[in-house]
Amino acid sequence: MTTIKTYIEENKDRFLDELFELIRIPSISSIAAHKDDMYKAAAYWKKMLLQAGADKAEVYETEGNPVTYAEKIIDAALPTVLVYAHMDVMPVDPLELWKSPPFEPEIRDGKIWARGADDDKGQSFMHAKAFEYLVKNDLLKVNVKFMIEGEEEVGSPNLPKWCKDNKAMLDADIILVSDTGMIAPDIPSITTGLRGLSYWEVEVTGPNRDLHSGLFGASVANPINVLSKMIASMTDENNHITIPGFYDDVMEVSAKERELLAKAPFDVEEYKKAIDVEELAGEKGYSPTENTGIRPSFDICGIWGGYTGEGAKTVLPSKAYAKVSTRLVPNQDNVKISKLFKEHFESIAPKSVKVKVTPLHGGQGYVCPIDLPAYKAAEKALIDTYGKRPVPVRSGGSIPIISSFEEILGIKSVLMGFGLESDAIHSPNENFPLEQFYNGIESLVSFYKHFAEMNK
Ligand SMILES: [Zn+2]
Fold first, then answer.
1. Same domain, yes or no, for 35 and 144?
2. pTM higher than 0.70, yes or no?
3. What is the model's pLDDT at position 395?
4. What distance in angstroms lies between residue 420's CA and the mean position of ligand 1's atoms?
5. Beta pairing, strands 319-328 & 196-205
6. DSSP one-letter code for 209
7. Shared domain check, 337 and 301
8. Which residues lie across from 298 on neighbouring strands?
9. Which CATH number goes with the domain that contains 428?
């Protein structure tokens, strides 16, 4: 039997040629002029998955960009893995900062350099090749489905509906995703949590027009003063959020998991130095990584109003605005939080102003239990390749589509990512180390082996 290591060694050049062909398609989802490229990428995925051994593959239309779906059903009674990935990429500007053109992939210093090298063309391609190896060597012991979308970088606006419409087709036991990173090649990790989000714009109106601050100041409420006080009252001296009911549904993390999470290396001094702050803030009683990973946060993302031009203009403005967001943790419902914030914000407004709260968007958080069989399989797979037990990591960021999968399809996701911090995703000079690329393919092959064994 050909081992995966040998298979990679023998097919290296072809793998890279095929990946580069995919990378050369400038599938930027946020730019309408690239619409055709989205179809090219979708067709390329269809061709690639059929060649790799899928029974069938199809490009599906949505209101927006297409989705490529493929499957290999060995036996309906066996467990099924649904691979989710995205074929779209971020824009490339500022172009002048790239050392080589973003859509002409190049290998330098043992890395692939191109837009999409990691996010998510390089990472998704590893799934296609792991699948190819398993099929060609008759080692696939579970059913596999692929769902490759074209709108992840613009927030997956059409995928939830597509999932609803194709729920039966997408039926699976687990969703496997490689669109995140690991701490370092010598510290493998798996993302087990993502935060949710609620976002609002608030408008505070005082008098019906800008007033002379000398003639009216002190007798008429200044909406910027009022807004500042209202916002300041949203957190207390321990950085605890004061919105009534805000913490009601927060899922507390067990001492055992907190202990595991603490194993991720974190240098507080380096962290402070990198962002040039003398002291960190955050909710009392939690470490910095816990504050970003397992606790919610409240932030003003922008605030404006009144006179902001050159020099001084004495004015008592009519209006003040702010963009406000909270990052939520698993089990907090963004719709409920959105309502709680609106009610609270309106209730604390003095009668001297009018307040308008407009919800902008939201998403649910996500948590992957570390005792889930598929998580265990991923853990074993990374031990096989990296020789170390991976650290579970709660990411502070949000991937709303992952929680949508759980809501719509009722399926958990395992986020088995191979990206590194230095990959510069979304930035100029995106890259992906070849070693991670090959190790990724190897780990995914192991995942299928362990996942099949666990479900015997
Ligand atoms: Zn991505």
1. yes
2. yes
3. 87
4. 13
5. antiparallel
6. S
7. yes
8. 326
9. 3.40.630.10
